Automatic annotation (TrEMBL):
Keywords (A to Z) from UniProt: Hydrolase, Metal-binding, Metalloprotease, Protease, Zinc
Enzyme Commission code: 3.4.24.-
Domain of life of the organism encoding this protein: Bacteria
InterPro entries referenced in this protein's UniProt entry, alphabetically: OligopepF_N_dom, OligoPept_F_C, Pept_M3A_M3B, Pept_M3A_M3B_dom, Peptidase_M3B
Oligopeptidase F N-terminal domain residues: 113-181
Organismal lineage: Bacteria, Bacillati, Bacillota, Bacilli, Bacillales
Species annotation: Salinicoccus sesuvii
Boundaries of every Peptidase M3A/M3B catalytic domain copy: 202-583
Protein's name according to its UniProt entry: Oligopeptidase F
Cofactor note: Binds 1 zinc ion.
Transmembrane spans: none
Its biological purpose: Has oligopeptidase activity and degrades a variety of small bioactive peptides.
Length: 599
C-alpha cells in the first residue's frame, strides 16, 4: 500500500482552485461580515407583500443574498472536505452553515405570505414584466394552493412533524447504530467483519462459501427483528397516507409525485414497461448462472463479477484522454467546457490525509463547478470522473443560461446528464478496446449498472406502491405480508435461473429508501432517460446533441421536469424511452454472449 500524502504535499495542479471563489480566507471573512450585516433586511418586507412591486423587491433581495451566501457556503465546505482534520476549515464550515440557517429562518415568512395573496391577484402579478424571472416559481406556488390548509391546521401539522418522523428515525438508529451481524466465514475458515458497509463487497467475492455466509448472516439477523421492522415501515407508510389524506390528495403516491409535478402515468408506465421486458432480466440471470458454472444460481451469486482476473488499470492522464474522446459526439462547445474544467483546476484529483471519501460535483451560482475525486488507477475511476463531469456540465450550462432561482434542477432529472456521459464513454470504449477480456469486464459493469438502476429500482418502486396501496385499502402490513409481497416480486424479477430461499424475502427490512416516500423510481426513470438520449445522440447527427444541450442542459428548472425532458427528446409519460433503454441492455447482452465465444 502506498502511503497517503498530506494536503500540503499535493501538487497544486491536481487540486481545485478555490481562489476563483475567494482570493483568500480574509476575503471570505470580509464577505461573511458583510452578509451577516444584511440579516434583518427582511423585516422591511414582512407583512407588506401588498403589490407586485413589493413582491418583486422581496424576491430580488432574497435571491441576491442567497446567491452570495451560496458562495460562502461552497468555499467553506470545499475547504473543509479537502482535509476534514483541519480545524480552521471545520470551524469555517460550521460558521457558514449557521449563517445559512439564520438566513433561511429569517426569510421563512416569505412563501406563507405569498400564499396569502389570493390566487387571481397572484396570477395577474406574475404576468407583469417585473416578475418575469419569478413567474414560473409563482405559477408552481399557485398550483399547490389547493392542498394548503387553514393556518390553524397547517400549524397543527407542522407541530406533529416531529412525532411523524419517528418511524424513520427509529429505523435509522436501529439500522445504523444498534444492529450488529455475526462475522462472515470464508472457505478457509477465516472470518470477515460483516457490516452494512462490507456486505456488497463480500457478495462480490469469488469465494462462494464467503458469499453464502455473508448473505445468510445478514438476512437471518434482519429476520430476527422482522416484526419490529415491519412496524417501523408500517409506521412511515401510515404517515404518508395520513398526510396525503389530510391535504386532500387522491393517494400517498399522488402527493409524493405532485411535489415535482410528475404525472402518475410515469410511474405506472415504468412498472408496466419494465415488466414487459422481464425476459431480458431472466436472460441475464441465466447467462450469469451458466457463466459462473452453477446448476442453480442463489441470491448470493448475483453480485459477483462474471469475468474473473481482469486488471484494468488507468492513470488519471489516460483517463482524461478517454473521457474527452468519448464525448466528441457532443460537439466542440461541450468538449471545451470539459477541457476548461480540466485545465482550470475544477478537479481535486488525488487522495490525501483527511480528505472526504468518495466523489461528487459541487459549486453554486456564480462559481465554476468543482469535482472531488479520490483517484485510484483503475477504469472504474474513469467512469466516476466522466459521471461527475456530466453533473458539472449540466450545472455549468444551467447557471450560464438561467437566473439563479431557475438554475437548479429537480431530483427527477438530476442523474440524467451524469448517466448520459457514462453511456457515451461505455460505447466509445467498447468500440475502441482491443482486449476481449477488458471488453467483457466493461460489459459486465454495464449490465450490472442497468440491473441495479433499472430492474432493481423498479422492483423497489413496485414494492413501495403495493404496500402503500395495501395500507390505503385497510390491509395490515405485517412481517408476514411484507415478506410475501417482497418474495413474490423478487421471484418475478429474477426468474427461474435462481433457486430461492426464505432469506431474501426480508430484504425490504434493510432498505432505507423505503422511508423516503416514492423516491426510488427516479433512479430508474433517470437512468432510462439517459440511456435513451445517449442512444439518440450516438445514432443521430449533431442536431440531436444540440437539442439535448439547448433543451435540457441549459434549461435548469425553468420548466416542469417532464417538459424539459420531453423537449430534449424523451417523453417519460410514454413507454418509448424505457423501451429504448431496454434495447441498449439487450444489445449489451448480445455483445457479451458473442464475445464469450471468442474467449
Ligand atoms: Zn451522480
Amino acid at each position: 500500500m502506498s502511503k497517503v500524502i498530506t494536503r500540503e504535499q499535493q501538487e497544486e495542479k491536481y487540486t481545485w482552485d478555490l481562489q476563483t471563489i475567494f482570493e483568500s480566507d480574509e476575503a471570505f471573512e470580509e464577505k461573511y461580515k458583510e452578509l451577516e450585516g444584511r440579516l434583518g433586511e427582511e423585516v422591511q418586507f414582512q407583512g407588506k407583500i401588498d403589490s407586485s412591486e413589493a413582491l418583486a423587491a422581496a424576491l430580488e433581495t432574497e435571491r441576491a443574498i442567497s446567491d452570495e451566501i451560496g458562495k460562502l457556503f461552497v468555499y467553506a465546505h470545499l475547504k473543509h472536505d479537502q482535509d476534514t482534520s483541519n480545524d480552521t476549515y471545520s470551524a469555517l464550515e460550521s460558521k457558514a452553515r449557521t449563517l445559512v440557517v439564520k438566513f433561511n429562518t429569517a426569510w421563512s415568512f416569505l412563501i406563507p405570505e405569498i400564499m396569502k395573496v389570493d390566487q387571481e391577484t397572484l396570477e395577474t402579478w406574475r404576468q407583469e414584466e417585473r416578475l418575469s424571472e419569478f413567474s414560473f416559481d409563482l405559477e408552481k406556488l399557485n398550483k399547490k394552493r389547493e392542498h394548503v390548509l387553514s393556518d390553524k391546521e397547517e400549524r397543527l401539522l407542522a407541530q406533529a412533524g416531529e412525532v411523524m418522523s419517528n418511524p424513520t428515525s427509529t429505523f435509522g438508529m436501529f439500522n445504523n447504530a444498534d444492529l450488529e451481524f455475526p462475522d462472515a466465514v470464508d472457505a478457509e475458515g477465516n472470518t470477515h467483519a460483516l457490516t452494512q458497509g462490507t456486505y456488497i463487497d463480500l457478495l462480490k467475492s469469488s469465494d462462494r462459501t464467503l458469499r453464502q455466509s455473508a448473505y445468510e448472516n445478514l438476512y437471518s439477523t434482519y429476520g430476527a427483528f422482522k416484526n419490529t421492522l415491519s412496524q417501523t415501515l408500517q409506521g412511515v407508510v401510515s404517515t404518508h397516507v395520513f398526510q396525503a389524506q389530510a391535504r386532500g390528495y387522491d393517494s400517498a403516491r399522488h402527493q409524493a409525485l405532485s411535489n415535482n409535478f410528475i404525472p402518475e402515468a410515469v410511474y405506472d408506465n415504468l412498472v408496466k414497461t419494465v415488466n414487459d421486458h422481464l425476459h431480458l432480466m431472466h436472460r441475464y440471470t441465466e447467462l450469469r448462472r451458466k457463466q459462473l458454472g452453477l446448476d442453480k444460481l442463489k441470491m448470493y451469486d448475483v453480485y459477483t463479477p462474471m469475468i474473473k482476473d481482469v486488471e484494468f488499470e488507468m492513470t488519471y492522464e489516460e483517463a482524461k484522454d478517454w473521457m474527452l474522446k468519448s464525448l466528441e459526439p457532443m460537439g466542440d462547445t461541450y468538449l471545451n467546457i470539459i477541457k476548461e474544467g480540466l485545465d482550470s483546476r475544477w478537479v481535486d484529483v488525488y487522495e490525501n490525509k483527511g480528505k472526504r471519501s468518495g466523489a461528487y460535483s459541487s459549486g453554486t451560482y456564480g462559481t465554476n463547478p468543482f469535482i472531488l475525486m479520490n483517484w485510484q488507477n483503475n477504469v472504474n475511476n474513469l467512469f466516476t470522473l466522466t459521471h461527475e463531469f456530466g453533473h458539472s456540465v449540466h450545472s455549468y450550462y444551467s447557471r450560464q443560461s438561467q437566473p439563479s432561482n431557475k438554475s437548479g434542477y429537480s431530483i427527477f432529472v438530476a442523474e440524467v446528464a451524469s448517466n448520459f456521459n457514462e453511456a457515451l464513454l461505455a460505447d466509445y470504449m467498447f468500440k475502441n478496446l482491443e482486449d476481449t477480456k477488458k471488453k467483457l469486464y466493461l460489459l459486465n459493469e454495464q449490465l450490472e449498472g442497468f440491473r441495479g438502476s433499472v430492474f432493481r429500482q423498479t422492483m423497489f418502486a413496485e414494492f413501495e406502491h403495493k404496500i402503500h396501496s395495501m395500507k390505503e385499502a385497510g390491509e395490515p402490513l405485517t412481517a408476514g405480508s411484507l415478506n410475501a409481497v417482497y418474495g413474490d416480486l423478487n421471484r418475478k424479477y429474477f426468474g427461474d435461473a435462481v433457486e430461492y430461499d426464505e432469506y431474501i424475502d426480508v430484504e425490504w427490512a434493510r432498505i432505507p429508501h423505503f422511508y423516503m416516500n416514492y423516491y426510488v423510481y427516479q433512479y430508474s426513470t433517470g437512468y432510462a432517460a439517459a440511456a435513451s438520449l445517449s442512444k439518440q445522440v450516438l445514432e443521430g447527427d449533431t442536431d440531436v446533441a444540440e437539442r439535448y444541450i439547448n433543451e435540457f442542459l441549459k434549461k435548469g428548472s425553468s420548466d416542469y421536469p417532464i417538459n424539459v425532458l420531453k423537449n430534449a427528446g424523451v417523453d417519460m409519460t410514454t413507454s418509448e424511452p424505457i423501451e429504448n433503454a431496454m434495447k441498449v441492455f439487450e444489445s449489451q447482452l448480445d455483445q457479451f454472449e458473442a464475445l464469450l465465444e471468442k474467449l
